[in-house]
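Q: Given only this backbone (541 positions), what sequence would you predict?
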């Protein structure tokens, strides 16, 4: 050993020896200190467990006991000796060894997800599989994020090149596995990068459900179907939400003669708000358009529109629906003739022709089945003329039905309604059939009413939350939501409100009466033009 290292070695030995002696000397104090900590923790726990009404008497008894010990001869000395002995006895045990470290949340959840994806992303002929049994997720997962509650919020993974990522069925299997392991209570967006063989997954924040029906800041001919994410809309509008005015991104549907998607088809799971969507559209169109409403389900969901200015009729029976649809077809033809005559003459078209006409059908397939049973014409066949020429004639058709009844909707209706909405938790196949394109968002297992997806024309599907537009005649609905709908109705209705909160703009007297002879044949057309002798409203059951 070199001479210069000899003093350093002796110094280390002396320090080590002094430390051992010090630990032996202060070992009793260490034991007593450990026992005192046990006593303090026990006393604190007993005090917190004592009810509040018993803490006063308990403190009084302890104080009396301490006073008695103080008054006894040598009481303090005996108490101190007893306390030291008790602390030494409580602290005699060895220090509690540290428990095993808790497993990392990322290792547990990502490992389980990796194992679940292995059967779908591995091949038997792959010599160096990216996904294999008892493999590690570090090579397959490029990045991940967890939220404050320990749930997976973002993930990027790589899959082998032979995976059939162009097939919707193969994608749906992987998306189902990811959603099952990450949590079915949230919606997830799946971004498939087919060129790089990467899949990016992002958990989506819930959309606001406390936006009630109200006047939205939109241009003429624009209808707010609902609200979506910030990246799903190019603008925001001010809305009243929770007693304050906030900016929310809307889903805008543009109607009118220059619209590329003049008609709307809304499909939904029962109880998820297709009728609320019809009411929301009707309230937004009433200030500048006339309405014809057909309630195929016959539940009276749209009875609040009866006898309102601008509402020609609200029909719930098959006979009334056929008459209303025949009148709408004749009105469409009359409008086309008047518009063509005005163009040839070089004059402005009449006001009753320019004013938009909206045809709202709620569950028309119910009437179609009834018509087939009675041997009458299918009401959907009468939509051919309004759907084909509605854009030129300023006639807009909105059809809402159950998602399970999609096969009973005629091909003509499906082909001409290019604005699509689907509401409720639907599967990949149902979403694809309803929207016309694969849905890159996995719906949550439980969704609130009015939650769904919208696709305008050939655009990308976006998430949708329909404004809460309840039936004001439903006594079980919240009073605040009912009052919001009543405030948007054009004039006073003695069934629900006492005064007219909103005045509608001036309206024309109505389109000219279409000469139709009424006879005993129930298939004959009727005149739905507004006027004392033309309005025929049936009492709702």
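A: Predicted residues:
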């Amino acid at each position: 050993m070199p001479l210069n290292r000899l003093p350093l070695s002796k110094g280390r030995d002396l320090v080590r020896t002094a430390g051992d002696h010090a630990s032996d000397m202060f070992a009793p104090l260490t034991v007593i200190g450990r026992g005192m900590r046990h006593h303090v923790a026990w006393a604190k726990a007993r005090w917190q467990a004592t009810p509040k009404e018993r803490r006063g008497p308990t403190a009084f008894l302890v104080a009396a006991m301490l006073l008695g010990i103080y008054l006894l001869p040598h009481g303090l000395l005996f108490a101190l000796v007893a306390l030291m002995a008790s602390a030494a006895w409580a602290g005699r045990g060895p220090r509690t060894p540290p428990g095993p470290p808790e497993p990392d949340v990322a290792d547990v959840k990502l490992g389980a997800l990796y194992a679940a994806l292995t059967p779908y992303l591995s091949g038997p002929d792959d010599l160096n599989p990216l996904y294999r049994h008892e493999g590690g997720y570090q090579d397959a997962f490029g990045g991940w994020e967890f939220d404050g509650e320990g749930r997976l919020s973002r993930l990027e993974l790589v899959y082998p090149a032979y995976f059939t990522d162009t097939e919707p069925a193969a994608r749906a299997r992987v998306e189902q596995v990811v959603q099952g392991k990450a949590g079915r209570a949230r919606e997830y967006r799946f971004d498939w990068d087919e060129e790089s063989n990467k899949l990016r997954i992002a958990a989506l924040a819930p959309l606001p459900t406390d936006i009630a029906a109200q006047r939205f800041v939109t241009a003429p001919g624009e209808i707010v179907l609902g609200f979506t994410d910030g990246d799903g809309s190019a603008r925001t509008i001010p809305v009243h939400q929770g007693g304050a005015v906030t900016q929310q991104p809307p889903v805008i549907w543009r109607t009118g003669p220059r619209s590329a998607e003049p008609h709307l088809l809304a499909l939904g799971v029962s109880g998820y708000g297709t009728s609320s969507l019809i009411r929301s559209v009707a309230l937004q169109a009433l200030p500048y358009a006339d309405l014809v409403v057909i309630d195929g389900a016959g539940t009276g969901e749209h009875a609040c529109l009866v006898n309102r200015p601008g509402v020609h009729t609200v029909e719930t029976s098959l006979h009334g629906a056929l008459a209303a649809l025949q009148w709408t077809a004749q009105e469409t033809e009359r409008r086309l003739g008047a518009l063509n005559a005005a163009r040839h003459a070089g004059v402005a078209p009449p006001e009753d022709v320019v004013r938009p006409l909206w045809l709202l059908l709620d569950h028309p397939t119910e009437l179609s089945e009834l018509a087939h049973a009675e041997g009458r014409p299918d009401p959907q066949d009468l939509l051919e003329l309004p759907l084909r020429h509605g854009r030129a004639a300023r006639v807009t058709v909105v059809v809402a039905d159950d998602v399970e009844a999609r096969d009973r909707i005629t091909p003509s209706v499906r082909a001409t309604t290019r604005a699509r909405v689907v509401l409720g938790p639907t599967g990949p196949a149902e979403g694809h059939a309803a929207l016309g394109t694969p849905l890159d968002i996995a719906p949550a297992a439980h969704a609130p009413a009015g939650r769904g997806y919208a696709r305008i024309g050939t655009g990308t599907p976006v998430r949708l939350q329909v404004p809460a537009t309840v039936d004001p005649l439903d006594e079980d609905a919240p009073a605040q939501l009912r009052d919001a709908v009543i405030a948007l109705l054009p004039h006073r209705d003695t069934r629900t409100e006492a005064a007219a909160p909103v005045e509608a703009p001036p309206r024309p007297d109505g389109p000219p009466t279409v000469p139709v002879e009424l006879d005993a044949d129930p298939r004959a057309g009727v005149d739905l033009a507004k006027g004392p002798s033309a309005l025929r409203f049936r009492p709702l059951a």
